[in-house]
Amino acid sequence: MTTDTEFERVRKVLQNAEEAFRRGDHPATRSWAQQAVTLAPNLEEPWLWLASVSNPRASIGYLKCALEINPQSPRARLEMHRAIQSLRKTNGAPRLPPVSDMTLISFSKQEDHTPEWSNNGKLDNENLPASRPFLRAARYLLVRLIAILLTIVIGVFATVVIANRGGMIDSIARVKVEREITAQRRLRMIDMSLPPLDIEAFRWEQEEINGLHLSYIPRHLLWTYNALTINWGEIWDTKSFRSFYGRSIDRTDSRLIILQRLPNTLLLIGTAYLILFCVGIPLALNLSQRRNNWLDRLIGALTPLSSVPSWVIGVLLVMIFAAELRLLPVAGMYDQIPPDTKWGYIPIVARHMVLPVLAILLSMIFHLVYTWRTFFTIFSNEDYVELGRAKGLPPRTLLNTYILRPSLPYIMTSFALTLVTFWQTITALEYFFAWPGIGQMYVKSLPNFLGETMYPGEMSLLVGIVVLFAYLLGATVFILDFVYVLVDPRLRIGNQQQTVELFAIKKRKKVSSRQEKNAWKSLPRKVLTPVEIPVRTPDRSRPVLSRFVEGVRTSIKQARLASGVASPAVIIGPLLVLLLVGGSIATVLIFPYDQVGSSWYTGNIGKKPLVPKLALPSWVNWFRAVDLPSTIILDTRDGTAGKQVQPSANGMTNVTLTYTIDFPYQGFPKDIAIYFEPDYIEKLPFASFTWITPDGREFNLKNATVNKDFAYNFSENVPFTRLVSQNKHWQKWFVSGTDYPTPSFYTLFAPQDAEEAVALPGQYTLRIDGILFEDGADLDAQLVVFGQVHGWAGTDYMRRDLLVPLLWGMPFALVIGLLGTIVTTLASLTLAAAGVWIGGWLDALIQRIIEANLILPTLAVGVLFYAFYGINLWAILIFIVLLNTFGSPTKSFRAALLQVKESPYVEAAKAYGASSWRIITRYLIPRILPVMVPQVVALIPGFVFLEATLAIFGVFDPKYPTWGRVLYSAIENGATYGSRFWVLEPIAFLLFTGLAFVLLGFSLEQILNPRLKTK
After folding, report:
1. How many of the other CB atoms lie within 10 Å of CB of 746?
2. Which of 165, 232, 356, 516 falls between 20 and 30 A from 797, CA-CA?
3. pTM score
């Protein structure tokens, strides 16, 4: 019997074999494995190590030995299959392409569903189940459909229960009852022949119909059924919902409103994704055959744009093509003037679709094409493709049959998951473009407290749209499953198991380390030759953090030397991130929030503003041939303006205030105001105003009685009608009586013969002649000529300096992005590792939760709860971040961990009795760091844009100046036709942040994954 010393010797031999394999030293791995075979010939692991470093023909022999020891070994059976396929490949037969984690492949535990090997080591294809494939595929799709529908039902029921905790669903029914009572009253007022209405009896009857008298569970089941069938009855038109369905009536069915808006949304998204699919795949195939040309490099450089939401790109497109160039309509679906025929709507709708469809394409096409191109490149390097080229197959046949067809499952997966993600953000895009779809209607149905009357929101429409989004997401997932069955011949649809599993991976029997040790001890004892085994002893004298930092530094240095990545692109990303971090720290220190936060929140309310409204940044004058005017402030109290006081004979006092204005600009000011500071007891001073131009013309303005804190606005006191009527030159450019009239004070600056709106540079004079009626009275005034530029960032419509929210947006964005990414990464990694290692019901449960999360519109649900319950912004962010855990990050980590789990060194670790925690932390997670770190970094821009997207729906805290808050106020107040910088500056900071972290992800991928070395 094997002694404990011999058992420890075998364990160390296998450990050395593992370390040699991880270093890529195959001769050393083979040497250690041969020693392990000598020590323990009846152990499976040494034979697997020998097979992993041998050619396919020799591997088959080693694997047959392993199968003789353990016929049910999943690792040996999988390696045998791979070896046979490799051997067939060398003989000219194309092998099966690799299968991704997202491929739906099901293997039953029954023996007749498992590939069998014959005595000569070849795969027996005749034993594979192939009978009645149509019925098995139909059964599989039916199970998937039932699972998706059940997920939707459970998710909607949970949403109804959670929403009704505050009485939100109860209010729908009660409002419906009250509306029915009002309708019956109105009907009886019109038709006096009807019997009088017993209000209480009628109310009881309607409450009974709407389920208000049912107990808790039946009531919520009834409302869940109403939500699933989008049947909330009729709604009253309290917010111009007539435009949604085209009828001039006061009430209509809520389902009719939603379903008549749905085709518009499907038209927009369907067109965009059809173009994306038809253009993206041929372009990716072309780039895979022409790598590193100018187009390939351009697509790679534009890939970071995919981190930008479509509505942000839409804002930029509107600024360029609608506001500036005026080539395309800015919003809507139709023109104001209808066409003569129905066919005339086609070009009108097409013109309105250009910008939103282009926004969708630009937000997705670069990332998808670059990803597909990389995947096609992998298949282009396969041996069977080279064999096809050697046989002289046409390039089209190689692309379509040998490259495109094997990769279709992965292409369809990435395409469908992109569509699933986009359904969550369509509301923001439709709202910005005023596209009459269900997304815009969702936003308009939310409670609105910004108008003169408080709109309480239309809950029937909101819940119906949320359920409709769930149906659309579920349909997308089901279509993906259906397409898998059609395009992937490798799919094996079992009869009893319908889970997402890797090809040929089966559950392995759990054997404790004690059982493995006893099994090794039961091996026959042999005379062993002493072997010198070096054992490394780590230096533990230094602190853990110091050893960790040194290890990371050494790893990065070795990786960079090995990969040759010393290009500037690797340095740009970290430098940009450091710039953001440094700017955030400087903002917090230089501009403390307790000093600037409250002042920015209140703006200039109740004050005499000295800052222009919607001003441009001052640095725009650096790029202009003619400067725009800056703000000029003249005050009699500080000596910048003249003041003369002269008593009169009748006891009154004459005061003359003189303001000399040096105005060397050809552009007009934003506005002109005079803030008076009179000193009197009872009798108000009187003032008359005279404006003198550089060429000597004088204009008498309207007189005014001056009280305390009086502000004299030139826009309201210039007699422009008389002045324009007397000057035929000004009539060519001066506009009045429209929504955007020419400011009246332009006439005070325009030359006498000006054929266009231009100011006369020179020295202007304003003279104020005041009369004081009391002894001891006085009069001072401050003249403010508001310029068109101000500060480094300009101002908004409340005259607030935009530099404050731009700077303070950095720390808020980094906090939201970093915290969201850390929480998502840790939770996703933990869930993925637990599911992969433990497997069974836990892994299946995690996958079902992920599918449910992909189906339910979490963003719409979060906005719904915020709108009706007033939940804090940070609670909504935490809610979405936690739900994001059960999404693509967990899916990606699971795919990588499944591959690592089947690695030989993990099998060796299990063989020598390593604990599950050690295997997960020392073997699984470190192995996927090159894949995990770049993906983690790429999550940060998504959370940064999440705050901005929520702000578009009005989900923000007005006390905190963030980029999303600035964007919301800019879009709401029509900044696209006012100050462009009000919109462009926060978008620029958002793009800069997204670009910085995407480039950082690329840099880390290059450093941590030396295999990405570019030649």
Report:
1. 22
2. 356
3. 0.69
